[in-house]
Amino acid sequence: MDFPLETDVTTAARLLQDGALLLDVREPDEVATCAVAGSRPIPMRQIPENTAGLPLDRQILVLCHHGGRSQRVTQFLRANGFANATNVAGGIDAWAAEIDPSLARY
Fold first, then answer.
1. DSSP string of the chain?
2. Are 85 and 3 in contact (CB under 8 A)?
3. How far apart are CA 67 and CA 81, in angstroms?
4. Where are the domains of the chain?
5. What is the rounded distance in angstroms from the CA atom of residue 10 to the CA atom of residue 57?
6. DSSP 44
């Protein structure tokens, strides 16, 4: 199966319900401010030493604040054998605006 390099938050929310992993690469203080339920927080700088714990058998949706860091992590994962990594465009800011308005925006 081919996974897109990037997707919007509406599609990402549906994929999450279908079993995709939502990987939140923001810093711990950002995650404490707001987070999508069920997401796995691993700060961007800790991704290289944590790839062994990531699945190869289901889609990984990579999320940050606006989409910049998650895009870099997605590219890193893709370069390291994770063809199932997809960036979530707009990040948690777009998620809060379009999917879950109860999330704090910052």
1. ----SEE-HHHHHHHHHTT-EEEE-S-HHHHHH---TT-EE--GGGSGGGGGGS-SSS-EEEE-SSSHHHHHHHHHHHHTT-TTEEEETTHHHHHHHHT-TTS---
2. yes
3. 21
4. 6-98
5. 22
6. G
Global pTM value: 0.97
CATH topology of domain 6-98: Oxidized Rhodanese; domain 1 (3.40.250)
For tokens 């938050």, the residue is: 9
Residue type, position 52, single letter? A
Q: 25-41 pLDDT, tens per residue?
A: 999 999 999 999 999 99
Mean pLDDT of all residues in 9-21: 98
Q: How remote is the C-alpha of 32 from its chain's centroid?
A: 16
H or E segment at 97? helix 91-98
Return the biggest CA–CA distance within the chain. 35
> Distance between CA 53 and CA 42 in Å, rounded?
11
Residue 57 CB neighbour total at 10 angstroms = 6
